């Protein structure tokens, strides 16, 4: 910390000069993240920078805009809800937080089922391909879930559904399929995975579900490949995450997770706060955050 303050214009100039050494975002193709939006979007950002998203009583329209996005995404992904029903989902900082939340829901559902059966519930695992994004490894390490990995081969750069289902056991909380591999953009065969896993569930009685990590492909497949069955049209798909800041075409800082139905999100993971008067349900890993990117996804 400096002993004395400096003029604001000098502070600005120093930081601005340092930022000149950053790369040019318009040339950044490394992370599939949107780096340009229309000037009107920039105006929306500037007008809402000082608003805290979590203050729902103070900013109820922002909450309504988030719920609108959740409903649109749920319908886009063929969730089994009516036109006037409210979908179950939430906006997140990115797909990493979305995956953490979905994973926690699967873990809690599995634990509740094991407890009701009088069985041990201390060794959960997830089956994925080795092509998953690092956030899946983070989830496994942070929340003490074993990661069972289907290795790629020289002629297959995505998870093999047959091998994945072979690795499923009674402690598997879900199988994670990728719609848009980070390395190649390839879609995994979620439909075949659903068929094979349905057969195994009938044989074992385990009822192992599927999560689809559609961070990259969720806003591509419905428009380019509308007949491709990868989403809630498949009965075992219980949750889907998607990145708004990739092909959702908004700046970095927003992801989404939607659940097939209310019963797929355990109630005890949802906190109810009343700091500002009314009841506010919340299911996030963080608390305060800006509202700007939520607005832009509308």
Would you mind describing this structure in some detail?
This protein starts with 7 loop residues before the first helix and ends with a helix. β4, α7 and β5 form a beta-alpha-beta unit. With 298 residues, the protein is of the alpha/beta class. It is built from 9 helices and 9 strands. α4 packs across α5 and α6 runs parallel beside α7.
What is this structure, in a nutshell?
With 298 residues, the chain is of the alpha/beta class. 34% of the residues lie in helices and 15% in strands. The strands form two sheets. Strands 1-7-6-5-4-2-3 form a seven-stranded mixed β-sheet, with helices on both faces.
Shape: globular
Helix percentage range: 25-40%
User: Which class best fits the helix and strand makeup?
Assistant: alpha/beta
Q: What distance separates the N and C termini?
A: 41 Å
Tell me what portion of residues adopts beta-strand conformation.
5-15%
Rounded mean pLDDT score: 92
- Tally of DSSP helical segments: 9
Low-confidence spans: pLDDT under 50, at least 5 residues? none
Which terms would index this structure?
34% helix; alpha/beta; 298 residues; 15% strand; single chain; two-stranded antiparallel ribbon
Topology:
Layout: H1 8-19, H2 39-48, H3 60-76, E1 88-92, H4 95-116, E2 125-129, H5 134-142, E3 146-150, H6 161-167, E4 172-178, H7 190-204, E5 210-213, H8 221-224, E6 237-243, E7 255-259, E8 271-273, E9 280-282, H9 292-296
Parallel strand pairs: 2-3, 2-4, 4-5, 5-6
Antiparallel strand pairs: 1-7, 6-7, 8-9
Helix pairs in contact: 4-5, 6-7
């Amino acid at each position: 910390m400096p002993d004395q303050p400096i003029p604001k214009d000098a502070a600005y100039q120093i930081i601005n000069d340092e930022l000149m050494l950053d790369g040019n975002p318009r040339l950044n193709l490394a992370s599939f993240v949107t780096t340009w939006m229309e000037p009107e979007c920039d105006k929306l950002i500037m007008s809402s920078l000082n608003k805290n998203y979590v203050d729902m009583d103070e900013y109820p329209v922002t909450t309504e805009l988030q719920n609108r996005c959740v409903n649109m995404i749920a319908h886009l992904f063929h969730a089994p809800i009516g036109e006037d029903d409210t979908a179950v989902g939430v906006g997140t900082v990115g797909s990493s937080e979305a995956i953490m939340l979905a994973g926690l829901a699967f873990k809690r559902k599995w634990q509740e089922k094991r407890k009701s059966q009088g069985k041990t519930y201390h060794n959960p695992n997830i089956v994925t391909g080795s092509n998953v994004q690092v956030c899946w490894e983070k989830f496994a390490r942070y929340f003490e879930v074993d990661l069972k990995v289907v290795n790629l081969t020289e002629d297959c750069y995505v998870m093999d559904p047959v091998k994945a289902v072979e690795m499923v056991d009674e402690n598997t909380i879900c199988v994670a399929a990728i719609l848009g591999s980070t390395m190649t953009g390839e879609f995994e065969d979620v439909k075949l995975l659903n068929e094979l896993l349905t057969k195994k569930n009938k044989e074992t009685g385990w009822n192992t579900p599927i999560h689809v990590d559609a961070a990259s492909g969720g806003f591509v497949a419905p428009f380019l490949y509308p007949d491709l069955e990868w989403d809630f049209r498949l009965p075992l798909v219980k949750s889907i995450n998607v990145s708004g800041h990739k092909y959702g075409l908004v700046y970095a800082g927003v992801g989404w997770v939607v659940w097939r139905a209310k019963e797929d999100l355990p109630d005890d993971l949802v906190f109810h706060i009343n700091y500002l008067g009314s009841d506010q349900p919340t299911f996030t890993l963080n608390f305060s955050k800006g509202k700007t990117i939520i607005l832009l996804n509308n």
